[in-house]
């Protein structure tokens, strides 16, 4: 049973990582570096859990702050921090699509470890909904983060570079917070809001993939 849960928890993350990795039309990133970033993302779960638990126990957080601060901001900042300091300045980060690969890797590392804990605690019958919602949403937040990180890295104008760097953090925080907010306030009707939100997120994310694919090297 434990093996089944582990496989069910890991499979969606690896499948989505493979999907976005293989969409690189020009020059695939080194597997070693991608896996390194993925593992960093998985390890982020532990400090993030401590920080989130501390804030939850010490502060009186309403639904809005729980969704946008204690979950979204903290998780996306830690993921952004890893990409910025591990991959952003790496010589292998030399194509527009590379930001998406690395950001998706760290996001899915985090989502996969989180999924392992969740399924072990709550049961493998949650695996399908977890794959469709939290795991895939983390991947798409990573796509959007990576797209704007690439725009920042390859931008020559210093002011625009700062703007894209800020967008790479703020837009995923907003989208992730909105996702959480729907879950927290939705009650019986949350799915009717979540379905169009996820469709829109997929359309938005794949649009960024297409744009990144059209800019192979260091050009804007």
TrEMBL record:
Q: What is this protein called?
A: Protease PrsW
Report whether Transmembrane shows up as a keyword of the record. Answer: yes
| Major location (coarse) | membrane
Q: Organism, per UniProt?
A: Caldalkalibacillus horti
Q: Keywords in UniProt for this one?
A: Cell membrane, Hydrolase, Membrane, Protease, Transmembrane, Transmembrane helix
Q: Which residues cross the membrane?
A: 6-22, 34-55, 67-87, 99-121, 127-149, 164-183, 189-206
The entry sums up its family as follows: Belongs to the protease PrsW family.
Q: What does this protein do?
A: Involved in the degradation of specific anti-sigma factors.
């Amino acid at each position: 049973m434990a093996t089944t849960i582990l496989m069910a928890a890991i499979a969606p993350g690896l499948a989505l990582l493979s999907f976005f990795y293989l969409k690189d039309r020009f020059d695939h990133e080194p597997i070693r570096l991608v896996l390194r970033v993925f593992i960093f993302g998985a390890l982020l779960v532990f400090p993030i859990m401590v920080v989130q638990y501390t804030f939850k126990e010490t502060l009186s957080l309403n639904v809005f702050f729980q969704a946008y601060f204690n979950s979204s901001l903290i998780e996306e900042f830690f993921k952004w921090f890893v990409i910025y300091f591990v991959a952003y300045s790496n010589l292998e980060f030399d194509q527009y699509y590379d930001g998406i690969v690395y950001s998706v890797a760290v996001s899915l590392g985090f989502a996969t470890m989180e999924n392992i804990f969740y399924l072990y605690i709550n049961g493998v019958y949650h695996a399908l909904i977890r794959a469709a919602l939290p795991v895939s949403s983390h991947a798409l937040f990573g796509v959007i983060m990576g797209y704007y990180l690439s725009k920042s890295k390859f931008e020559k104008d210093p002011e625009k570079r700062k703007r894209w760097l800020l967008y790479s953090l703020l837009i995923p925080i907003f989208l992730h917070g909105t996702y959480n907010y729907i879950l927290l306030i939705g009650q019986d009707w949350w799915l009717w809001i979540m379905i169009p939100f996820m469709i829109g997120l997929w359309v938005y994310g794949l649009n960024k993939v297409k744009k990144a694919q059209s800019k192979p090297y260091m050009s804007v």
